[in-house]
Amino acid sequence: MSDRVHDIAYAATCIREGKCVAFPTETVYGLGADGLNPLAVARIFELKERPHFDPLILHIAQFDDLERLVARMDPRAFVLAEKFWPGPLTMILPKSTIVPDIVTSGLPTVGIRMPAHDIALALIKSAGCPIAAPSANKFGRISPTTAQHVRKQLSEVDYILDGGKTTVGIESTIIQLTERGFHIVRNGLITKEELEAILPFDPHATHDTIVAPGMIKSHYSPIKKMIIAEDTTLTGIDIDTAALISFSGRYDTLFRTVVRLTHTNDLKEYAVQLFAAMHSLEDNNAIQTIVAEPVPEEGIGKAIMDKLRKATYNWKTQ
Ligand code: TXA
Ligand code: MG
């Protein structure tokens, strides 16, 4: 048995025993447990220090798994699954009775996705159950894109399956199906335009009619001050202790420490590396302030700007 196969088999045994395992997906690392075992799921909330009002998503490895987790099969969900799964799309659908209330925070709906990652898929298959998994960070903190990032925040986790760096770098797009079409709960790599090719966007669904308890204003926060370049006058910044996360290079000469995430204005490349850059600057003792250059809000740029706004929210309100 190769080391990798052995590690996956061990991780799957942990999941079956009700333990928590961090594992890679194409987006970010997840903190997984048996999604049908309420006690195992409770441990995710405990390890992550996550409030119980914030529901988890279930990860599946086969299309058949979808059917037993939903109350009724919406044919539109099948079409979307066929097009985007495995991949970074989470669909919120009416839940079946086998999904424990603790997974959905008591909501009648459940978020489901099939990750596009060989290790994740092998783990789910080998565990033989849907795996409930939020991102493997402490609640409100920077999401992990490597096993080291997980270790930094969640050293108590029962096991970490190391699959190297994730390839998308930010969390899945989350949608909810409405009578008229779909509503986007969280932006990600899969864009509104790509989804619209299959189903109409529902402009009437608003955050008042859609329940999205986890979409709070502050999230992904480093423990250090973080600001968006255009929200501030950069003249007051101490360039010895501030670092720039750069997109276009426009502000690079104003800083001594610059982390340029792309040299080709490529938003996907920026997204893949954003959390890793935030982690490394958070860990850098010489740095006190992280400044991020905003990016154009097109394609995955929408999701990037959502992350930057949430990561900097606490500093704006002080
Ligand atoms: O890419 C991803 O989606 C990663 C990887 C690990 O798969 N997971 C992830 O999980 O980002 P998490 O828990 O960090 O974010 C999922 C979000 C939460 O903010 C939660 O509030 C929302 O999905 N959510 C889950 N179930 C929901 C439901 N039934 N209704 C509304 N929102 C829901
Ligand atoms: Mg998260």
Description:
The chain is an alpha/beta fold and 318 residues long. It is 32% helix and 17% strand. The chain has 10 helices and 13 strands. It has helices at residues 3-16, 38-48, 63-69, 75-84, 101-104, 118-127, 147-153, 192-196, 267-283, 301-316, and strands at residues 21-23, 30-34, 57-59, 89-94, 109-113, 131-132, 159-160, 173-177, 182-186, 225-228, 242-246, 257-260, 289-292. The strands form 2 sheets. A 9-stranded mixed β-sheet has the order 7-1-2-6-3-5-4-8-9, sandwiched between helices. It is globular, with a radius of gyration of 19 Å. The N and C termini lie far apart (54 Å). The model has no long low-confidence stretch (mean pLDDT 93). Bound molecules: threonylcarbamoyladenylate and magnesium ion. The site of magnesium ion has 3 residues, from loops. Magnesium ion binds next to loops.
Spatial order of strands in the largest sheet: 7-1-2-6-3-5-4-8-9
What form results from the Cα inertia axes? globular
Strand content: 15-25%
Kindly report the average pLDDT value.
93
Helix content: 25-40%
SSE string, helices as H and strands as E:
HEEHEHHEHEHEHEEEHEEEHEH
Ligands? threonylcarbamoyladenylate, magnesium ion
What is the number of E strands? Answer: 13
**Structure class:** alpha/beta
